[in-house]
Every structure is written in C-alpha cells, then in structure tokens.
Amino acid sequence: MKTIVTGIQPSGRLTLGNYLGAIKNFVELQNKGEYDEFMVFIADLHAITVSYQPTELRKHIRELAALYLACGLDENKVTLFVQSEVHQHAEIGYLLQSIAYIGELERMTQYKDKKQKQVEGVSSSLLTYPVLMAGDILLYNASCVPVGLDQKQHLELARTLAERFNNKFGETFNIPEPLIKKVGAKIMSLQDPTKKMSKSDPLEKAAIYLDDDENTIRKKIASAVTDSDGLIKYDEKNKPGISNLLTIMSCCTGESIASLEERFKNSGYGDFKKAVAESIINLLIPIQQKYLSILNDKEKLDKILDDGAMKASYFAQKTLSKVKRKMGVGRVK
Ligand code: TYM
Fold this sequence. Notes:
Blueprint: E1 3-8, H1 16-32, E2 37-42, H2 44-47, H3 54-70, E3 79-82, H4 88-97, H5 102-106, H6 109-117, H7 124-138, E4 144-146, H8 152-169, E5 177-179, H9 214-222, H10 240-253, H11 257-263, H12 269-296, H13 298-327
Parallel strand pairs: 1-2, 2-3, 4-5
The protein binds ligand 1.
C-alpha cells in the first residue's frame, strides 16, 4: 500500500516557493496516480505554534483549501482536509512526544530560527512542532512525503521516531521517504538570494505571492538582486540571484536550466528578467482566476473538507488505536 502524505501551514499568503517547491509536485504526483491514498491537509495546528490572529487563521484555512484546488488538486483523487478536524493528529503528536528527546528537538534549524523571532515568548509547541509533524505522517503510515528542502530535517526526525517506536513497541510504522525535487526545492528570496523565499519575510518584494498581480510580479522580478558580470549562467555560489531566476523560470516553463542558459546567452539581465516575469505570470494568472470562484462556492468547499476529514479520520483512528494498544495506554476491551 503506497500512501502519500503532505501538508502546508495556513499562516498567510503563500509564495512562489510554496508552489514550486511543494504544491506543483503534489499535483504532478496526483496526476501520475501511482499511489493508493494521497492525504493533503491544511496544517492549522502547526500555525498556532507562533503568535497569530484567530480570525485571520480561520480565513487562511479556507483560502488554502481553495488554493489547493485552484492549483489542480482534485478532491476525487486526493483526500483534502483540515488537520485540526481530525483529532487523532493532536493525540498521536502527544503520544510520540514520549519518545522524542528534547535535545533532538532543540537542534532543529527551523526551531532555532523561529525562536529568535518570537516577541511574546517561545511556546513549547514551537519546540514540539516536528513531533506533531511526525505524527501527521505516521498516522497514515506514509511511504512518501513530498516537501521542499527546508522540511528535510523534520522528515529525518519523523523517520527516527518511526524507527524508535518500532524498536521499542514492535513493528508498527513504515519508514517514510522524503520526496524532494532536484530543481525548485529551495526557491530563494529575490532580495537576498542566499536566504529562502519565505512567507514571513518582512520585505514585501523579497517574495512573489501567489495572489500578486501581473504588474507586481514584473516589478518584483525587475528589482530582484543579481550581480554585475552580465552572464546568464547557473552558479549557485557566485551568482545566487541569476541562479535563482533560472531555477524559477525552469520550474515555471519546464525548460531545463541548460536550455535557458543557451537561449539567453546573448541577452542582458533586463530582457532575461522580463522573460522570467512572463513565465511566472503565465503560471499564476490561470490559478488566480480559478481560485476566487472556488473560494466563493462555500457549500462545495465545505463538502469537500467534510468528506476529507471523515475519510482521514477513518484511517487515522485505525493507526491511533494500534499505537495506543502497543504503548499500553487505555484498557483492553
Ligand atoms: P510550510 O507551510 O512552511 O511550507 C509548505 C511547503 O512549501 C515548501 N516551501 C518551499 N519550497 C521551496 N522553496 C521555498 N522557498 C519554500 N518555502 C516553503 C515547504 O518545504 C513545504 O513543503 N511543517 C510543514 C507543514 C507540515 C507537513 C506535515 C508537511 C505539517 N505536517 C506533514 C509534510 C508532512 C510546513 O511548515 O510547511
């Protein structure tokens, strides 16, 4: 049985990085159809690990559901649901904490980064976040987890916890494999191409947001930081800005980086940037057009998420009961 599991946090406007590093791959995997179950969720329990506005979160949950569909996920091919509506996620997250060590959680890069940015204090759930994520994955006995590069360390922890659980309590979980694309797994900031493009970047022009209009996209790409040697060549170390734009255009069009280098070898940065912007516009505008009508069909969206939560709960409960039995919590009936 091959199960794919993945999720995204509804913590604000999604970026082109989220699309190229994650959603685009979800859709490709869906269309290949080589799986038995494909669980895609809106990770709202993860979004409350840092400070947030409850009314905004509720809004973002719906928006992310509509966006998944607008990007091409099909509710008949994947199970789409809201994480908190399947209570087994929180429960397995807690149970797995008993086999996760504080030291290994404190070593997580994202924890160390995000911890620095908290003004109201660091919540304990920010530390235990990767355990919840391991639970999300193990609850469905995932064999494969498509994510961007920044989630690799969390995936490794999920594998470690699965192995530790199996050794301690007997064979229970598959060891999940990360699925990280070679090109596009880490789209970089347009203003500092040595940093990841992030939805929490305070600099608006550092990221392309999936709801940016055509002019904004053109302006942001035109002002993307590059270098001064004038060559359109992929060289991550010495030319991170141009390399990032080549990656973006390659992911948006499907044309290889080598072929783009050849095509633009006699062009200046200005013309190249114009072409990059058009490739993004061609990709995002059709998504934006579908998005609003999906978001506005409240009844249909609710039905998809209700059905998704019901199906996910069925699988989740099976695993959770087994986990509790193996761990010796609850009674034998
Ligand atoms: P999140 O919401 O931060 O990001 C969602 C997905 O987008 C990818 N991503 C990127 N890919 C390429 N370039 C970028 N600049 C970029 N920024 C983000 C992320 O790698 C991710 O795949 N913890 C997860 C959500 C989650 C999850 C899970 C994922 C919760 N439980 C279980 C898989 C399985 C997160 O915060 O992703």
